[in-house]
Design goal:
Elements (H helix, E strand, L loop, with lengths): L12 H24 L4 H18 L10 H22 L6 E4 L4 E4 L18 H14 L9 H14 L13 H11 L2 E5 L5 E8 L4 H13 L5 H5 L3
Antiparallel strand pairs: 1-2, 3-4
Helix pairs in contact: 1-2, 2-3, 3-4, 4-5, 4-6, 5-6, 6-7
Length: 237
């Protein structure tokens, strides 16, 4: 099979600026609808995340390393939305807050009451949502903000809830064995320590490749999970 290479088309600065303005308007529109029009929150956060990730996909033309403030805000907003969607799916009765740095807004339980029954039945909150949230936290750099303790939250709160089928939610959510194995494999990369008081603490670095014995256990769990997708197979390395 031959691969056809397609040349990248030229995009003017004016077009890129217009795309950013349009993306910001769409994100603000979603936030307004969630705040004032009863838009289902998980659905709205998912839509914002998708819209800003489309912008992130276009940013490398101007910012190949995605290091400018605008690119960082776009990626951080996608990560915050993914975390918020996961949190609401696992703990619908809990307090929550979702910063949206790209549009300089914050959504929270202080002003919006979450109505789980308004959410579409699909997609359910499964281990795939956990993996997506972690991936965006790593890509955006949010995982390295130690005061957010994202690693312990994902490891000690969300992962167990997903293994148990999100028992705090009224919605059924059953994760596929391979997705659970992939989530458990990535849990091994979250450096967690137990302190003198109850609760997990961040390790010296929030995210790191586990040691040899831990990787062996990861491979065993993945092998026992059945058919794996391409990303899950990479975790065997």
């Amino acid at each position: 099979m031959s691969i056809k290479y397609v040349g990248r088309h030229d995009v003017t600065q004016e077009q890129m600026d217009a795309a950013l303005r349009c993306g910001a308007q769409r994100a603000s529109g979603h936030a307004f609808a969630m705040r004032h029009d009863g838009r289902p929150l998980r659905q709205g956060l998912r839509e914002i995340s998708g819209d800003v990730l489309d912008l992130a996909g276009a940013r490398p033309l101007e910012d190949p390393a995605l290091e400018t403030p605008v690119s960082r805000e776009v990626l951080l907003t996608a990560a915050e939305c993914a975390l918020g969607e996961l949190d609401l799916g696992c703990f619908p009765e809990g307090d929550w807050e979702v910063p949206l740095p790209f549009v300089d807004e914050t959504l929270s339980s202080d002003e919006i009451v979450y109505a789980e029954g308004r959410e579409p039945l699909s997609p359910a909150t499964t281990a795939r949502a956990w993996v997506r949230a972690l991936a965006l936290c790593v890509i955006s750099g949010l995982i390295w903000e130690r005061d957010r303790v994202i690693g312990p939250m994902l490891h000690e709160d969300h992962a167990p809830a997903l293994r148990d089928g999100v028992p705090y939610s009224a919605r059924d959510a059953v994760s596929a064995p391979a997705d659970l194995a992939g989530m458990d494999a990535l849990c091994a990369y979250l450096t967690i320590e137990q302190g003198r008081l109850p609760g997990a603490l961040l390790g010296p670095v929030p995210f790191a490749r586990p040691g040899l014995e831990a990787r062996k256990r990861v491979v065993e769990r993945l092998d026992a999970a059945g058919a794996l997708d391409a990303d899950q197979r990479l975790l065997r390395a």
